[in-house]
Amino acid sequence: MTSRRRSTGLCLLLVGLLAAGVSGCGTSPQMDGEWTVTSAEGHEFVGSTRPRMTIDGDDIRVNAGCNTMNGRVSLTDDVLKVRNESTTLIGCDQELQAQDEWMARFLADGATVGLEGDTMTLTQGDVTLTLTKQD
């Protein structure tokens, strides 16, 4: 799997994790919308970049700073999974490419989702991303 495909998968997983407030497969209407990472514990993003995710049913779109990743998400036992991912192939500087790859791995490996109102958390090991739903 290419680095860009992994990046796409990771971003998609992150979006799915945000939807973890619903049990079983698929996502909840509460998860639909655009989400932006507002804080991160255990990971530092490049400069002022903040990954964004858009969830529409089982579809997800993620941008971690360079490429846009697309795919389908499912949620089982509060863990989001991404499948059928694809990504744009924009040439990025090395730091942003590494960030895309990190996000793809994060999402591909699965993260536990917490959802309370307009705030979603995605947790994997020592890393917790907090996302806020955009109006």
UniProtKB/TrEMBL annotation:
Q: Which residues form the DUF306 domain?
A: 32-129
- Entry superkingdom: Bacteria
Extract the PROSITE patterns matched here. PROKAR_LIPOPROTEIN
| Cell inner membrane in keyword set | no
- Secretion signal, residue range per the UniProt entry: 1-25
**UniProt entry keywords in alphabetical sequence:** Signal
PANTHER family in alphabetical order:
DUF306 DOMAIN-CONTAINING PROTEIN, HEAT SHOCK PROTEIN HSLJ
Q: What is this protein's record name?
A: Heat-inducible protein
Lineage of origin: Bacteria, Bacillati, Actinomycetota, Actinomycetes, Actinomycetales
